[in-house]
Amino acid sequence: MLSSRKRQIKRIADNLWRENNLTPGFDIHDLLERKDIIFRAENLEDGVSGALLVDGDLKIITVSRSDGPQRQRFTIAHELGHEALHDGFSVSVSSTAKEYYRNTKSSTGEYEKEIEANFFAACLLMPEDAILEEIHHDEAIDDNRISQLATIFNVSQMAMAIRLSSLGFV
Ligand SMILES: [Zn+2]
What we know:
Helices cover 54% and strands 14% of the residues. It has helices spanning 3-19, 28-34, 69-85, 97-103, 110-125, 128-134, 143-153, 157-166, and strands spanning 38-42, 48-55, 58-64, 91-94.
């Protein structure tokens, strides 16, 4: 992803955070209600974790009911990314990056959209500024600390570890 596109996506996620007075670990279902997006948890086919449907003013985010709450939360944030970034985009989401690779031809640009939606989700659930408020300057961040931060931001340890690494904190 181009760094200019990254900055743009970060800005859109930061604006959503500010406009809705979000705080670490915020209730994403409240955010859906405020944005008039209908939420559904359903039985989805194997390998599909969520979907966004946009039909005019009607917006529906569906997640797999068999996923745990934290995973559903990340999926919702991912679908919010499609809603914010990919006008009129409607698609099912595979559950793993490997599957995107397997099922998606890079030439279609679909895989790029998945990367962008995941980056948006990371920016929305774990904003850089909010992380900076939690950690101390020059703090050594070990697994326990990652786990603590994951709890504060209500994301998986894996998601937090990847986020901290991409921000250069670990
Ligand atoms: Zn997607």
